[in-house]
């Protein structure tokens, strides 16, 4: 099917009959589904730092879907969360969205609607994963390297940066090379793509 259909789809629901039915339904849309009947088992098994989509039931023995979502948030996981529950109501849906859920469905669900939500959720998860990984690289820069990064994306030449910072041009060249290496980029276009992440608000997740 699509690139998205090749990504990780995790179904967390304690009802085996529903899990079988949903897995069969989603496989018809080209997805490969991994089922967990327990929220803690899901959290302990899956690499939460990788992109994908988690479809959570709300009421389950042990951790509820809401608790699983909270723990995903606490680990800054890029996984997109879709709730699929037989016990949903408006306040529950509002809370889910407030906590970052990508979509909220009540059982039974229309296959096409769920598949469309999964596709969008996976695309969002890929973007979040890219952002988180590159943000970590930017955070690893020293203050001087961040300063060089900013001056570079502002269009300053090495000579202009050297004059502004009262250092030798060679020093600028060394710092600039370190910035490129740490960020894993090889040209200006790639560096500019990362520029919006340089000034992340402290309160942003």
UniProtKB/TrEMBL annotation:
Keywords: DNA-binding, Phosphoprotein, Transcription, Transcription regulation. Residues 134-199 form the HTH luxR-type domain. Signal peptide: none annotated. Residues 8-122 form the Response regulatory domain. It comes from the Bacteria. The modification 4-aspartylphosphate is found at residue 57. Pfam families: GerE, Response_reg. InterPro entries: CheY-like_superfamily, Sig_transdc_resp-reg_C-effctor, Sig_transdc_resp-reg_receiver, Tscrpt_reg_LuxR_C, WH-like_DNA-bd_sf. This is Response regulator transcription factor. It comes from Shewanella submarina. The lineage of its organism: Bacteria, Pseudomonadati, Pseudomonadota, Gammaproteobacteria, Alteromonadales.
């Amino acid at each position: 099917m699509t690139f998205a259909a090749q990504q990780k789809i995790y179904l967390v629901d304690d009802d085996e009959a529903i899990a079988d039915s949903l897995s069969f339904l989603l496989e018809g849309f080209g997805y490969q589904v991994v089922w967990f009947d327990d929220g803690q088992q899901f959290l302990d098994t899956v690499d939460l730092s990788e992109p994908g989509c988690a479809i959570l039931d709300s009421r389950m023995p042990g951790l509820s879907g809401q608790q699983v979502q909270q723990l995903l948030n606490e680990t800054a996981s890029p996984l997109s969360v879709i709730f699929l529950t037989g016990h949903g109501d408006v306040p529950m849906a509002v809370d889910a969205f407030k906590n970052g859920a990508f979509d909220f469905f009540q059982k039974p669900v229309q296959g096409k609607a769920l598949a469309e939500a999964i596709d969008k959720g996976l695309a969002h998860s890929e973007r979040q994963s890219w952002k988180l990984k590159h943000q970590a690289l930017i955070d690893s820069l020293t203050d001087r390297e961040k300063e060089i990064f900013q001056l570079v994306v502002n269009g300053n030449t090495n000579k202009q940066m050297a004059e502004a910072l009262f250092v030798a041009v060679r020093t600028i060249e060394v710092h600039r090379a370190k910035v490129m290496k740490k960020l894993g980029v090889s040209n200006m276009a790639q560096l500019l793509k990362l520029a919006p992440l340089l000034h992340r608000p402290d309160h942003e997740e």
